[in-house]
Every structure is written in structure tokens, then in C-alpha cells.
Amino acid sequence: MSISSGKTIISDYSLNMLKPGEGEAGIVFLSGGSALAAVSEHLSKCRIPSVHLITPFDSGGSSMPLRAAFDMPAVGDIRNRILSLARIDLVGAALPELCSMRLDKSAPEYVLRNQMRALAAGRQAIMLRLEDARRGQVTRWLEAFLRHMPDDFSLKGASIGNLLIVGAYLALGCDLYAAVHEISSLLQVEGTVLPVVDDVLHLAAKLTDDRVVVGQHLITGKEAPGLTVPIEEVFLTPAWPGTDATPRVVRPGIMPEVARLIKTASCICYPMGSFYSSLIANLLPKGVGTAISLSPCYKVYVPNAGPDPEVHHLSVADQVAELLRYLRQDTGEQMPVNKLLTHVFYDSGIEYSGGVEVERILDMGVDVVDLDLIYSGYSGTYFEPYLFLRSLSDLISLKD
């Protein structure tokens, strides 16, 4: 095992290397949140197919009212990834704009309901900008949502994109995979977006002081005060936030199609994002770790460049150990490291919370690659998606 020196890129291969070969699914990203948005937009612009397995366990924002009203998985992160991968050159700007719209938080409910009825009837100005076929599909899904919407449901701040997915979900027999396929097709997504499972579950965390927190929004520190005690374990539960003092642990199984996509990946990426609620949550369903171990491709972890309140106390080496621990919950403790994780990409110019501990990562049997992953602009420091994707391209080329 080795570490690269001088932060050099192996070569300057075209990003076309990222396009999947025959029988390959492409790069599989196990990611739930918005941290991969810039990378996804770059993939779409370069027309590089990829697979995005998304966690449907969010319990915050506008997702929770929908989940409570329809007893369904969360769709907000799925909507965000679909929009990041949408082919605007094929569908035009109006449809992504519509899916990005939110209803006014301060408007009376009767005004919002009239606005929704006008959208569903195709009468709003933005609807008239859509091609006839796409407008027909949009009105179909919005009409389905309105038919099923409870009388006491609040539309304040609702995301039109979320309502569109929920309408498709309800019209298609509460099949989230089918709904995501339909909306992806509508927006001409470059690649594949799927929920890792379609079960109605929540993310829970047992803390080191033995308290248990149920609800992703209480773990991330984005919509509630951040955790002040480290996480000992995360798990999935059917319990709803605030309703069960001793939540039951469940491990749903993944669909055969999800397993197939993982097994045929040209590269598997554990990307930047909230460590437990975005990345580890994707590894909790039964079958994910096993499918990863059966894929012969490289597997890359890219830690957060910025602060992550979920792992403020963990070094990158600690995160690698946690990643392997959760993968082995599925495969067994004897699974060789190189079947689960082969590389860590990091940038020595970044001050990672908790540090990196390069030698410790190498001792685990994982290669460490020091890359230029950020650039400095007038208003701050930014993650550079092209540099990241070119590095993945170089790595994939080494398999040939």
C-alpha cells in the first residue's frame, strides 16, 4: 500500500474514461445529501452516466409533513439529486425551475391550494413554457397529489418537485422506485437515481451516554442543535421521531436491481457528505456490504473537506475504521479490507476536523492518495468537481 507524492495526477486522461464499459453500471455513489450536487451537475454536463443510491430517511424540512401525511419514505434528497443530473439541454429550463419552486410560507392555505390547482390544470405561466407531453405528465402527477392530499395538509413552504414525486408515488401504487424512474425520465436524468430501499424507516443514533435519538434531522445538526455527545451506533427503525423511547432495530434488504448496480460498478465512491446520516445510512440495509464486496472495482472514500458535526471528534482514519465496521456488519468480520475499500482521496492542503492519520490508514490496508481537490476563489475555498472526477478517471484506468 502506498501514498502518492507531490499531489500529482497520474495522467490527464479524458473524463470519457468515466463512461461505463460494456456490462458496467458506471460509478456508483452512495450518498444521501446535497454535498455531491456540484459533482452531479458536472457528470450531467459531460454526459457521463452514473448511479446514485440515495437515503430516503430524512425527517426534516418539507419531507416530514409529506412522510407523516402519506406514511412514505423521504423524497427531498432524491429530488435534489435528480435535479442535479437533469439534462437541461434536452428538457429546457422551465421544468427544473418548476421542480425547484417552493410555495410561499406566509400565504394563506386557500391561496396555496388555488395555486396548486392552477398548476395541476396547466394554467400557470411556467406550465405554459413546458412542451405539451411534459406538461401532460406534470399535470397528471400534480392532480394525483391533490386527489390524495388530506384536508388538513399544509402547503406552506412545500417543494413542487417533492409534490410531483409524491403524486407519481401515489398514482403508481406507492412504488417509490417506479415514481423515481418516471420523474427521472421526465427530466432526462443522465444516469440512474434510486433510493437504497423503499421502506418507511427513520435513522436513529445511540449516543455514548446511552441516550437514543430518533430522526435524521436531530442527528445532522442542520435543523436542530448539533449533538454534543459522540455517536456510538446508528441504525434504522420504524419508530417515528419522538414516539418511541426504545426503538426497534430493523435491517431491510435491498432490491435485486440495487445489488446488480453495485456489483457491476466501474468504481464505487463513498463521497463527501454528512458521515452518518448520508453515507453510513446507505450501508445499513441488508445486502449493501455484500454487493460491494462482490464488485471487483476500486472503492474510494472521500472525506468531508469542511466541518461535519456528526464526526467532529473523528479523524479521517477513525472514519475509515467506522466505514469498514458498518460494511462488515453485512459481510462478516473476516471480509478482507480490499474487498470493501481500496483508496482514500484527500487533500493535504485541507485542515480536516480531527486530522487525517495517514499512516494509520495505510496500516489498515488502504491506499491514501493526496490530491488537489479544492481551489480558492474571491469569496472563499471551493471543492473542484473536475479535479475529483479526473482523479476517479485515472484510478479507473489503472484497472484496465
Describe this protein's structure:
Helix 16 links the parallel strand 9 and strand 10. 40% of the residues lie in helices and 14% in strands. The N terminus is likely disordered. With 400 residues, the chain is of the alpha/beta class. The strands form three sheets. It has a seven-stranded parallel sheet with strand order 3-2-1-7-8-9-10, with helices on both faces. Strands 5-4-6 form a three-stranded antiparallel sheet. The protein has a two-stranded antiparallel ribbon with strand order 11-12. The chain folds into two domains: 189 residues, Rossmann fold (3-Layer(aba) Sandwich), CATH 3.40.50.10680; 110 residues, no CATH class. The chain starts with 25 loop residues before the first strand and ends with a helix. Helix 1 runs parallel beside helix 3. The chain has 17 helices and twelve strands. The radius of gyration is 21 Å and the shape is globular.
List the helices and strands and how they pair.
Layout (H helix, E strand, L loop, with lengths): L25 E5 L6 H9 L4 E5 L8 H8 L5 H10 L2 H4 L2 H7 L8 H12 L4 H4 L3 H17 L11 H12 L4 H11 L5 E4 L6 E6 L4 E3 L1 H5 L10 E7 L18 H8 L1 E6 L4 H9 L4 H7 L3 E4 L14 H16 L11 E4 L11 H6 L3 E4 L3 E4 L2 E4 L1 H13 L3
Parallel strand pairs: 1-2, 1-7, 2-3, 7-8, 8-9, 9-10
Antiparallel strand pairs: 4-5, 4-6, 11-12
Helix pairs in contact: 1-3, 6-8, 8-9, 9-10, 12-14, 14-15
How much strand? Answer: 5-15%
Task: Give me the CATH fold name of the largest domain.
Answer: Rossmann fold
* Overall number of structural domains: 2
Low-confidence stretches: 1-13
Q: What is the end-to-end distance?
A: 19 Å
Total count of helical runs of at least 4 residues: 17
What is the mean predicted local confidence, pLDDT? 91
Top-tier CATH class of the largest domain: Alpha Beta
Topology pattern, helix = H, strand = E: EHEHHHHHHHHHEEEHEHEHHEHEHEEEH
CATH architecture of the largest domain, by name, is 3-Layer(aba) Sandwich
Helix content: 25-40%
How would you write the strand order of the largest sheet?
A: 3-2-1-7-8-9-10
Number of extended strands: 12
**Largest sheet, strands/sense/barrel:** 7 strands, parallel
